[in-house]
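pasting for the record
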Amino acid sequence: MAFKRIYNIYLVSGLFNITNAMLFTTYFLYLTNELHLSYALAALLDLPVFLTQLIVELPSGFFADKFGLKKSIVIGTIALTIGPLIYCMTTNYILLFANGIFYGIGFASISGAFDALAYETFSTDLKRLFTIRQLIQNLTNVIVPVITILLSQILGLRVFYFLDGIFKCLILVVLIFGIDDVKEVYEIPRYGLEFLRTGFALVSKQLHDSKAIFYQANSQLLWGIASFAVDVFWIKLIEISVGTNSVGLVFSLASIVAIVGNLIAYKLKVIKSAFWITFLLHSIFVILAGIYIGKEAAILFILGRSFFINIHEILSSMILNQIIKTSRASMLSFFSFLTLISKIIGTLVIGTISDKWGVGTSWIFAGLILLIITWQLYQVQKYNYE
């Protein structure tokens, strides 16, 4: 029984992957093709999500470390169950905008806590954990987008938000009854908010004591703008290059290429240099995809980008586990907090750039930022292995 409960981590991760792939394939098409929003207005819907995350992110990480990782994940999943159901019931822009608060609470509550729970549960074999999680995600991305695009022709795009809510309810059941916290919950302090002061102190100490963590924090601060541009406009770039009917196919091809990257990352013996070199190559492919948007070459560069970023993500997880020494959920939430700051900037800048100069320009802009991040990651590697 204990064996099955431990591996429910993979089940929950897989269910989250299904919902993410389903909505990632349809979300931006729904906003631009059915609601007929401009790129700027569509991007602006993420603003309340990021603002809410910004407020909740650090307290949620401190809460998870202090009172239990599982509690934080359950709270986040409940919020992520409410969000898509509201999306399913209305197309009113004001309500959709306000609904971002639920998504923000959900993402913030889960971001640090779930990874920390996975790290602690599989601490004796982390590389295997990271590889299997990535493989599950990419296998999901091979199948789900194609099915989603086909069903969207029959069901319509709004239905997928209802399906997302159903999947989130299933995740809640598995979380509550099938997963245990990995350690005893700390005693609640006399003053209920004391955990906030303690959390800030622990984060500050690690930033002061570790140059690797300091440079990782710098990279997270820039990552939000670049990742926002690439993630939000990825499907749109594919659509412009090969047409709507081929979006699911290209998404699946990218996931197959990603699986190859996962397997290579698992076999790599040299993490030290590959950690930042694979990110550098990913950056170059992002720029090239933006330059060749509208042509078949753009798809080749999208596939190349998927290959290298999936090698990097596994190696990056290994490095993060090495440099974080304590209060794992708090530190991961702190990194997410820094990313959110730049994502808020991205919601205001990237949509406008795309409206004026095109989606490809946003990718080129993101790629240039990624090159700067590469230097930061080189510093992380340098000080981590000193």
